[in-house]
Amino acid sequence: MIETELKLLLNSKDIDKVKEHPLLQQQTDSQQLYSIYFDTVEHDLLRSKIGFRIRHIGDKKIQTLKTAGSGLGGLHTRQEWETFITSDTPDYEKIPATALSYLPSNFNSIKPIFITDFKRITWLLSIEDSTIEVALDQGKVKTTTDSKPISEIELELKSGSEIMLYKVALLLLNDIPLTIENKSKAAIGYGLCKPKPLKFYEADSVKLDRSMTSEQAFIHIIWHCLQHLQANEDIVLHGNDIEGIQQIWLALQRLLYCFNSYKSLIPNNIYINLYQEIEWINSILTIAKDWNTFAVNLQSIHPYYQAELTELQTKLVTKQNSAYIQVCDMLRSSRYTRILLLLGKWLLEKPWRNQLGIKTLQNLDSSVTDFVNHKPDELDTNSDLLEQLNLNTQVKYFLLGWYAYQQNLHIDKFQINWQDFAE
Prior knowledge:
Largest sheet: 8 strands, antiparallel, barrel
Number of helices: 16
Shape: globular
Strand order of the largest sheet: 1-6-4-3-2-7-8-9
Strand content: 15-25%
CATH superfamily of the largest domain: CHAD domain
CATH architecture of the largest domain: Alpha solenoid
Number of domains: 2
CATH topology of the largest domain: CHAD domain
Low-confidence stretches: 375-389, 402-423
C-alpha cells in the first residue's frame, strides 16, 4: 500500500498541549512500539533505498518493508508491505512477490542494526471528507553505543486529500510550536550507526520531463527550491556553517524568481502575503550573509592594519554570532514552519486555477516543451540573472519562455520589471 504522512517535531514540554488540543477529541489507542531495523554490514538496503523492520505491537509482530519514496515539505509518500510473523527473525517467505524486485541480492545476510522504542498515542480525525490519523510519538532511537530522542507528530492520510494533512498541521501550529521533519526514524537510526559530518547541499539540476504540463513544471520547480532550502537547515542549526546560510539564501532567491515569473497566476492578496513572508526570511539571512562577507573582506586587510582593526574585528565577531543566532531562531520559529506549510498546501490546492481565463488555463495545461522552446531574442539578456541564481539551462529557458508567452498574450496584472528584480 502507499503510505502518505506529514511529520512534525515538537518539544517534549509541549506534549500536554497536543493531548489537550480541541482538534484531538477521539483518542483511538495508546501503545508502546518496539521496532528492530535490519540491514547488511555495508548497509546495502539503505543504498537500495529500502527500509526493513520487525515491530512489536502488544503480542503481535509485524514485518515491514518500505521504499524510500519521496519527501517534500515534510510530506512523505512511499510504498510499504506489512505481514504478520511469529518471531524477531525475518521471515523471507512472507515478503510479497511485488516487493522482491526492490531487494539487493544479498538481502538474506541482514542483521539487526538499531531499534526504535517509543510510546504512540493516536487520534482519528474525520475532516472535510478526509480521514487522518494523528500519532504522537515519544521515545528513542537506539544503537548499541548511542541514542537520540523521538518527539514528533505524524499525520497519516488514511483516506481523502493530501491537502488536509497541511490544513491539520496548520491548525495544530496555531496552538503548538512545531517544526517540519524531513527525516524518518530510520534515517535517524542510520545516522547514529555511521555518523557523518554535517554538510551543506548545493542545488541539483531541475529535471523537467517532456510529459509535464507547464503548470506541473512550475510546481516541480517550486518544490525543488523548497527541497534545496530544507536540505541545508541541519548544517545551519547543528553545524554552525555560514555556507548553509548561503545555500538557503540562494534557494530563496530562486523561489522569489519563480514567484515573480508566475505572478499572474497568484491572486494579488496571496502574492503580497507570500512575498512579505519570504522577504522576512530573506532579510534575516541577508544580514548574516553580509556580516560574513564583511568579515572575509576585513580579514584580507587585517595584517596591514592590525592595531587599528583589532577592536573592530572583535565587535564584528559579536555581530556575526548574533546574526547567526537570529537565523537559527528563525528556522526554529512557528512563523517559518507556517510559511513552509502554507506553500505546500498552496502547491497542492492550485488555487490559481479559479482565478484564470480559459486561454491561460489552456497554456498551463499545454506541454512544458512549448515554453522551453519559446525564447525570443529580446529576452536573451535576462539569462544572466538566472545564471547567477544557479538555475540550469532547461529551467532557465522554461521560465523565460513562460514570461514571453505572458507578454505576448498581454494577460492582465502580469507585471515584472526584470531590472528592478535583479537589483
